[in-house]
Amino acid sequence: MNHDRLARLTTDALYFALIGDAERASDAITEIGTSGSPFDMYAACCGFAETAKRAMVKALGDEPDLTAGDMWILEDLKPGTPDKSPAETFAVRFITAYANDDRDTAPALFRAAIEAGPEQYVDSVCALLGNAAQLRRLSMQDAPARE
What we know:
By secondary structure, this protein is mostly helical. The chain has one domain (3-142). Helix content is 70%, strand content 0%. The protein is built from six helices and no strands. The protein has helices spanning 3-18, 22-35, 38-60, 86-99, 105-115, 118-142. It is globular and about 40 Å long. The model is unreliable at 143-147 (pLDDT under 50).
């Protein structure tokens, strides 16, 4: 899949997830998965995680200084649900690893999702997209005023 097509599909998936059009978001992800390679899907997941990271920066007003040992800690995005599915766990951990520039953990998590089988892999990518959209929505509501 060429870079421009991948970028368009990733953006489409994010946009449709953000506005709550799950079917069209699913169509975009499905096309990445069927027309692209696992590397393309990993790139899309990084795009979703980048959106989540930028949303966290906007909502919180600044970001941790990773060079000083600070880090992002992303807690429960769905409070009140005691049992997290593996897909939900993947999504939170992937966003956290990506935001912390953890170049070992993010790809390892993605690889583990693939190795867990097709259903788990799809569920994990969808959960990641859903969390990115949820964080983006929250950032649009709760962003601190900037001078």
